[in-house]
Amino acid sequence: MSLQTAGIHHITAFAGDPQANVDFYAGVLGLRMVKKTINFDAPDVYHLYFGNEEGAPGTVITFFPFPGARRGRIGGGQVGFTTYVIPQGSSAFWKERLHGFGISVVEADRFGEHYLQFKDNEGLQLELVERAEGAASTWSFAGVPAEMAIKGFGGAVLYSVNPERTAFVLESVMGMEKIGEFAGFARFRATGDLGNLIDLPMTAVPRGAGGAGTVHHIAWRAKDFEEHEMWRGIVNGGGFQPTPVIDRQYFHAVYFREEGGILFEIATDPPGFAVDEEMEALGEQLMLPAWYEERRPQIEQGLMPITVRDPKNVNL
């Protein structure tokens, strides 16, 4: 049985300074920090999640911020640009806001759409694009009113060392539809209305190097646990070597690396971020999985204190 992903579930990247990471994604971009936890595989490092008010699939970017981390090099085998979708008519607001924080903006056009491209404080490449589709955000913070707020992901630009094989995986494994070509890019559409458009340069990109300012992996949506098991079977049947299903507390995950070098994850929509916190309190406390609770004092002592703060009150 063939399946079609609805699109991006989340994107996970590396960062350095945890407080600077919070200041940029909550303070500058106005996203909500929906979860403050740890890297389950390296509990001395935070795992921070930023998205819309509820942290819905298709809106969440996550970070492993490690103080003193070396800067990575963006290249093949990575997400090149993380694309955010903003409401129609809001580009002027965002251009002015980014300039107000001293952030350089490059304007670009692709597939008939206009993009504002910029980098975060670590050099991670981001872009904003206006689109009508996708539910409006209800979150307002740090001078970003809800009517101007980022809705979630518009998609991503993938940098591949073997774009023909990456295209094959997008179409034949993940079930996306190729809908066009433009200036050396191929565009693929998933079935959802957020995180649903993937642009792939069809010229190989020299391999990048992981580190702060680069994406670790991109995760695709599975609607439930049953479908997730089916996805693992499809990936395995395609000749890849998926990991076992891993419980990440807020979703179940399976990982595999496609032939263009990009680490793919397939993640379940449920159970979501309210599984261990009330919706109105998301991101306020350090949340640990049960198997780390007995180590909470040592873990908390080893983590740099962070806080969500309005940038008008601090010097970013």
TrEMBL record:
<dbReference type="GO" id="GO:0051213">
    <property type="term" value="F:dioxygenase activity"/>
</dbReference>
<protein>
    <submittedName>
        <fullName>Ring-cleaving dioxygenase MhqO</fullName>
    </submittedName>
</protein>
<dbReference type="InterPro" id="IPR052537">
    <property type="entry name" value="Extradiol_RC_dioxygenase"/>
</dbReference>
<feature type="domain" description="VOC">
    <location>
        <begin position="152"/>
        <end position="269"/>
    </location>
</feature>
<dbReference type="Pfam" id="PF00903">
    <property type="entry name" value="Glyoxalase"/>
</dbReference>
<keyword id="KW-0560">Oxidoreductase</keyword>
<feature type="domain" description="VOC">
    <location>
        <begin position="7"/>
        <end position="131"/>
    </location>
</feature>
<dbReference type="InterPro" id="IPR029068">
    <property type="entry name" value="Glyas_Bleomycin-R_OHBP_Dase"/>
</dbReference>
<dbReference type="InterPro" id="IPR037523">
    <property type="entry name" value="VOC_core"/>
</dbReference>
<keyword id="KW-0223">Dioxygenase</keyword>
<dbReference type="InterPro" id="IPR004360">
    <property type="entry name" value="Glyas_Fos-R_dOase_dom"/>
</dbReference>
